[in-house]
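Researcher: Next entry in the queue.
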Amino acid sequence: MSTDAPAARPHATSVAVWDLPSPVVAGASFTAKVGIACEVACPLAGQLVEVRDEAGARIGQGRLGETPWPGTAALYVAEVTLTAPAIEGVRSWSAVCRAPESGVPHADASATFTFRVAPRPDHRVTISVTDKETKKPLEDVDVRMGPYRASTDAGGVAHLAVPRGVYALDAWKLGYETAPRSVEVATDLVVAVEVTCAPETDPDEGRVWM
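Model: Structure for this entry, 210 residues:
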């Protein structure tokens, strides 16, 4: 009769990737945060994480920090430096966490993340957003020109570096609305955007009373 204890089930881990620039500039260096968490909150400080491209080649690596990410109990994070491909397009890479060679057994884990590679910018566009009624600048307005995104600061200003071309400019903030507009970028320029308060929706609108 065997007295060997059954092998412990490896702890499952999960992987998350965030804080990439949007978009990533072709050929440029950028960083991404890779977070790893164990299902039973094991400490994972110092664990190696890798980033691999579509062909499986390792293109970056880092080690998890000594303490969990603020506001979490067991999410350990590494900041990995990467170099964007030289060719434009949408890319899908993977962040991989291999099981440690010693200590509590953990299962391998990975997560795929997708990002857009854009050409190098030619010009700087400054967008100034104000409330049409009060004429006051609006903070935290999401501004987008094609794949390029930014948020306005306390002065209602956002900056975008973009290649020359024609873009649909959108500005969004909860409780406000504005119509998209077309902007041609051939040099550095400043664009003023006025937004209006969005009308409140009648909760009974569209309801059929029986």
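Model: The domain at 13-118 is CATH 2.60.40.1930 (Immunoglobulin-like).
Researcher: Noted, moving on.
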